[in-house]
Amino acid sequence: MGGRCGTVAAMLAAPIELPERLNMVEWFLDARLGEGLGDKTAIYYGEREVSYRELVADSCRVTNLLRALGLRIEDRVLLLLLDTPEFAAAYFGVLRAGCVAVPTNTWLLPGDYAYYLEYARPRVVIVDAEVYPQLAGVWRDAPYPPIVIVVDRSGAPAPAGTVDWNVELARQPGEARTEATYRDDFSTWLSSSGSTGRPKCVVHMHHDFVWNAIAYAQRTLGLRREDITMAAPKLFFGYALGSNLLFPLSVGGSCVLLAERTPAEQYYALIERYKVTQMITVPTTIAKMVEHAELAARHDLRSLHSLVSAGEALPARIYRAWKQATGVEIYDGIGSAEMFHVYITGRPGDVKEGSLGKLVEGYSYRLVDDAGREVPAGEIGTLEISGPSAGQGYWRMRDQSRATFRGDAVRGADKFHVDADGYFWFCGRGDDMLKCSGVYVSPLEVENCLLGHPAVHEAGVVGYRDATGLEKAVAYVELASGHAASEALAAEVLAHARANIAGFKAPRRVVFIDKLPRTETGKIKRGELRKLAEGLT
User: How much is the pLDDT for 195?
Assistant: First the structure.
């Protein structure tokens, strides 16, 4: 399984130069018709196969509907859609009209949507009927109430006061004028994870998506026309929007869309069914698939040449277990909403276990200390990444934008060290890092160590203040099946840590917990663990 011939060239063939006039819908979608791929399947969805020609026509109908509703260039459209062909048609239709798409998490509560309606001020919301109940009680009370278009995939009529997607699209022609936008016109706002407060929308231009697609998807990963992608994350995340829609379509490939959350064990059958060549996922999902590794032998996975992983660093233990079970390579990487997508990654023929790989060519970096000075080689520093896909800033958040964006450079809170061969090693986020005995300690290093104990299923490490006010590490541990919490087991786990990492890095305490708090993308909510740790002394 997973065989793939050749590797991607280490050097780019030429600098990426984009025309001044650029509407990304033409580059990612319409150009495929000119290449003779109109009848090729662009999207697999259940039993449906949507061709490139059908997707172009459906996106044109959306464009015509938006214009009929009075929208003009730069008007914002909030997308609250599941991973269905309607998402793709709506997204490309918004761009074709010259409007700005704001893909938004469909797992939120009414109060969250009220925030988005005030913050983003969309003229239109396109919402799936399954999500509409969460929007229904708040949209009329928004400061600037939007037009709401409801997509009911069952064919039921739309609620009173809203626009019926099925009825109105059926009235629109399948051809539309594409707005002649500039490469520097706004196209999409991507939301941050919101782990440090309310979500922030990163303002991106048409240029950003095309540039990264060439640099990362085409030239680094070598995506090609024969590829069929499938994602565990949903399209409202920039990570999946790129990897499981824009990137495959940019080369004439295909994508598999899954509307509902999918249990990890079901992905093996889906890979076989659709002959998926590249799966887009996160470490948490890979770990859950590894728990059902026996299914790998029961399904035909020969089509699968790689997994793309991002969102958090992939523990080496999980990487090894997956490779042993399937033989399929994992390209672990890191990106951000601020940069649109991945800028550091493993790649075909160049994967170092445990690392996040090397820079995608076209990006540059600095590792700096708290004062903004570059750190000596080999030391941990905060990553400042620079590249042409950087966003313009956060919408309506001047101070946070000034602190994060510096031209094409973005400084977040991610801590790294880079080894002598140019591989990046993730050490956590700045607000997660611990400083023990005056030295930065990476929670991830401690967590990966704890995962080596057979009783530990998952671990989250944060700091707490001891009686002297010094910062120490506490490990919150989910136990593996068959193990029961006890003081003796806690002492055993601590002894394991002290035997495998430097003593000052080992946690001082172990607290057993039924379930670690996680975000919708599977990341540990360290903020919640820190609140729990406030009661420790």
Answer: 39
Query: Are the beta carbons of 31 and 210 closer than 8 angstroms?
Result: no
Q: How far is CA 58 from CA 91, 94, 96, 99, 470, in A?
A: 11, 11, 11, 16, 60
- pLDDT > 90: percent of the chain: 80
Gyration radius (Cα) of the chain, Å: 23
The CATH number assigned to the domain with range 432-533 reads 3.30.300.30
Q: What is the bridge-based pairing of β-strands 228-231 and 186-191?
A: unpaired
Which residues share a beta bridge with 365? 385
Could you read off the pLDDT of 193-236 as tens digits, one per residue?
643 457 899 999 999 999 999 999 999 999 999 999 999 999 99
* Residues 148, 78 contacting (CB under 8 angstroms): no
CA distances from 339 to 2, 243, 251 (A): 29, 14, 21
Contact of 352 with 9, CB cutoff 8 Å: no
User: Is this structure's pTM higher than 0.70?
Assistant: yes
pLDDT(77) > 60: yes
pLDDT average, residue stretch 134-154:
97
Instruction: Determine the pLDDT at residue 274.
Output: 98
Amino acid at 176: A
Q: Which two tokens stand for residue 450?
A: 């704890």
Locate the domains of the chain by residue range: 24-418, 432-533
d(CA 339, CA 476): 32
Q: In this predicted structure, which of 161-175, 216-230, 260-274, 493-507 has the lowest mean pLDDT? A: 493-507
- For residues 82 and 62, the answer to whether their CB atoms sit within 8 Å is no
CATH (residue range 24-418): 3.40.50.12780
Show Cβ contacts of residue 108 under 8 Å, excluding neighbours closer than 6 positions. Answer: 134
Q: Which amino acid is at 346?
A: G
Phi-psi region of 85 (alpha: psi -120 to 50; beta: other; left: phi over 0): alpha
